[in-house]
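User: What would this chain look like folded?
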Amino acid sequence: MNVNHELISTVNDFHFAMMNDSPRNEFYYNALKAVITPTSVVVEIGTGSGLLAMIAARLGAKHVTAIEANKSLAMVARRNMDANGLGDKITIINKMSTDVSASELAYGKADVLVSEILGTLLLSESALEFNDDARKRLLKPGAHVIPAVGVQHVTLVESERLDLITSARN
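Assistant: Here's the prediction, encoded as structure tokens.
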């Protein structure tokens, strides 16, 4: 049996939780619904399972290009899109978004960029760098970026137990 342990670990660690996070998915649905038109060309970086790309396609986007660096996740996304009858509206590119050129996008530069590469610490997956690069190279001027902003709240906590696992030691 050919078991892809990397894929299982990735899906178990965060994709499953994200796909079942109703407030998160409702945010993305509403944000995409506010900007998608029948002429919208959408690019998603870090598509994972393809959920956000499928939402954009179901909302009526002309076309969605879903970029995913992880080969196994790109295959899962393709299966999900085909199973949902969206294979003709979504192109998957299995590369880092920084290695994708605008000429590789089915309809050229996009009107909408969507991504959920924020991680639990808002910027843990180099979201600023990847979104900035995509905005400069893969989007039309004035394109919508979802999410456009983020806010992170912090509070100080003192805990001897937490100190044992997070502090630098000799």
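The first strand starts at residue 41 and ends at 45. If you want, I can go into more detail on any region.
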